[in-house]
Each structure stands twice: as structure tokens, then as C-alpha cells.
Amino acid sequence: MSLKKICEEKGIDINKAFDLVLGEGGGILPTKTAFTSYFTEITDTSIICENTRLKAKAEIPFSSFKSAEFGIGSGHLWLQCVVDGAPFIFTTLRGNWKKPSAKLLLEKIGQYAEIEGMKEYKGYTGWKFLFYLFK
């Protein structure tokens, strides 16, 4: 189901929703496959991640983010975080990183942890993406 459709059903502003693709959940969120997708609602104090197929739902306070760093791997932009001492690594589609919801998510995480590698983020989401990716 599309992010827009889920937001409509749940009555959530699409600018406060994010399609998080989990690389490593650090015990915070379960993964069934290499890349498990979670519908993520961004609140003032936390993200609420839900995967209905796994019957998994967790609220992760922004205050639990201890570090965050962007990096490129397998052609995707990953945000590699440490949340309460555990690795929490996720990505999304390139276009999603440009959306207001991604900017809100980064703003909220940035209130508690410095986000390193913003050069990677800007290069990956910029108009010279292909030049950046293959340099």
C-alpha cells in the first residue's frame, strides 16, 4: 500500500510520514528480509514505526538518538544511527529523501545528535546526482 494511502487511512499528514527501509534494527525493530519497510509517523518527540505484516510497532524517542551519519552504500543513501547504544540503520528511495517529511525527520534527529555526512546527503539529493554517485 502506498504511503499516501496509509496516511489517508490513518488521518496522518503526509509531511509527517516517512517510508523507512531498515538495514539494521539493532533489536529496536525486527527485520524479516534484508530490507524491511516500515511506515513511520514523525511526531514532535519520536518516530512511530509500524510494519503490519510483521505485526511490529515501536516508538523511538528522538532523545534516544546518540549519533547519526550519512553514507552511500549499494547506490543508496543510508542514515547510520546509534540509538540507545544499538545500531539503527535505514534508507529510503532517493526521491523520499527530498520530501518535507525527510527534512522534518532530520531536523528532529538533529536536535539530539549531530548528523555527520551532510555532504553525502546534499550530493545524493542534488541535481548533479549521477555525477556525484560516479565520481
For the biggest β-sheet, the strand order reads 4-3-2-1-7-6-5-8
Number of helices: 5
Give the percentage of residues in beta strands: 35-45%
Distance between the termini: 36 Å
CATH H-level homologous superfamily name = Pleckstrin-homology domain (PH domain)/Phosphotyrosine-binding domain (PTB)
Written overview of the protein:
It is a single chain. The chain is an alpha+beta fold. It has a single domain (3-133), classed as Pleckstrin-homology domain (PH domain)/Phosphotyrosine-binding domain (PTB) (PH-domain like, Roll), CATH 2.30.29.30. The protein contains 5 helices and 8 strands, in the order αβββββββααβαα.
Keywords for this structure?
135 residues; PH-domain like; eight-stranded mixed sheet; 5 helices; 8 strands; globular
Short summary of the structure?
By secondary structure, the protein is of the alpha+beta class.
What's the topology here?
Elements: H1 3-10, E1 17-24, E2 36-42, E3 46-51, E4 56-61, E5 65-73, E6 76-83, E7 86-91, H2 94-97, H3 100-110, E8 115-116, H4 118-125, H5 129-133
Parallel strand pairs: 5-8
Antiparallel strand pairs: 1-2, 1-7, 2-3, 3-4, 5-6, 6-7
